[in-house]
Structure formats: structure tokens, C-alpha cells
Amino acid sequence: MAILETDPSHLGNDQPAHSHSTEAHVHDPFVSAPPAPVPAKETLTAAGDILRALAAPVRIAIVLQLRESERCVHELVGALGVTQPLISQHLRVLKAAGVVQGERNGREVLYRLVDDHLAHIVVDAVAHAEEG
Questions:
Q1: What is the pLDDT of residues 8-53, one digit of tens each?
Q2: Which residues make beta-bridge pairs with 71?
Q3: How many CB atoms lie within 10 A of CB 112?
Q4: pTM score > 0.85 for this model?
Q5: Which of 121, 74, 132, 130 shows the shortest CA–CA distance to 99?
Q6: Does an H or E element contain 52, and which?
Q7: DSSP string of 26-81, one letter each residue
């Protein structure tokens, strides 16, 4: 009897066959997985809006900066090496999408992330891109 690719006994250990990284996914056409729950259309639209807001290199860099600490526009200009009008434009997009919020502090506005959820998305995307 030949040992099939999906047979875990040829692995020489007690790990299940699906933990073997070179194994191909086998789909049984007679067994279907239950469908994943689909959020409401409004939720999907909002998620798309957030991802579009994050879909620019400068905005990704801004989120990474704000992940470290709140910053004012001139600090972001210095850290990222782009012009003040460009930083302000990107901050407006991030603010409209609910990613950042600004708080006036004298003549400056300090920007911070609304929460850490989006920072995790950005960090994971950057890490994935760096993996090549």
C-alpha cells in the first residue's frame, strides 16, 4: 500500500498532516465548510473606507509615527521629510476616516491614533511587505 501525501504516518512524529508546511490543501468536494458570517453592508463599506485611508505610503508612515507617541504637524514633517501641506492633507484623510484625532494645544494641534487596532493592521502589513 502506497503512502499518500496526506498520510501523517510518514512524517515520523505525532504531528497531524496539516502541520506539514509543504503539503497541498486537499478539498473534498462532498464536504463543504459552513459559510463565514458576512457583516452588514454598512460595516463592510466602513472597513473599506478605513483601508483606503491607510492605502498611501505617507499615511502608513504617519500611523507608524503616531503609534510611538502623539505628534504635531511639524514633528511629522521633520520625521517623514515631506512638506507641511502634504502632511496636513494626509492627516485630513486619516481624521475623516476616524484613524486619528487632533487636539489643540496652544498654537499647535497634537495628533494621536484613535485606537491601536489600526496600528496593528499597519504594522502587520509592513512586516508582511518586509518578508518579501
A1: 444 444 444 444 455 566 767 788 888 999 999 999 999 999 999 9
A2: 111
A3: 14
A4: no
A5: 121
A6: helix 41-53
A7: ---TT--PPPPP---HHHHHHHHHHHHHT-SHHHHHHHHHHHHS-EEHHHHHHHHT
